[in-house]
Specification:
Oligomer: single chain
Number of strands: 0
Order of helices and strands: HHHHHHH
Number of domains: 2
Structural class: mainly alpha
Distance between the termini: 15 Å
Radius of gyration: 20 Å
Shape: elongated
């Protein structure tokens, strides 16, 4: 019952308060993709063995673009110069999107302040 009261109180907060109080970074609900150095070591070995970017991508479950960004300095330089502005991706997480996601997690009882 104590948890239910906390959930209700949290859901009554305005967006800014909720965003400050509910933290998802570093939890299993964090939506950022994370790669480890072990992932890239495996990919480097496969590259040296002559495997294609597509094969490595499929086996390591990392997008070709992300692999090349981290392992191919020429690709990284070209990619960074092709960007215009702060963020050009389709999957940019806006404040409203982030707050809605946090509200959903709190309402489901998955995160408690």
């Amino acid at each position: 019952m104590k948890n239910a009261n906390k959930i209700i109180e949290t859901l009554k907060m305005n967006d800014s308060e909720l965003d400050k109080m509910v933290h998802i970074q570093g939890t299993k609900y964090d939506r950022k993709v994370k790669f480890t150095e072990d992932d890239f070591k495996k990919a480097r070995k496969m590259l040296k063995a002559g495997r294609s970017w597509a094969e490595i991508s499929k086996e390591c479950r990392i997008k070709v673009r992300d692999l090349r960004y981290h392992l191919d300095p020429v690709f990284k330089k070209e990619y960074l110069t092709s960007l215009s502005g702060k963020h050009t991706g389709k999957d940019h997480i806006s404040k409203q999107n982030r707050v809605s996601y946090k509200r959903h997690l709190v309402a489901a009882g998955l995160l408690v302040v």
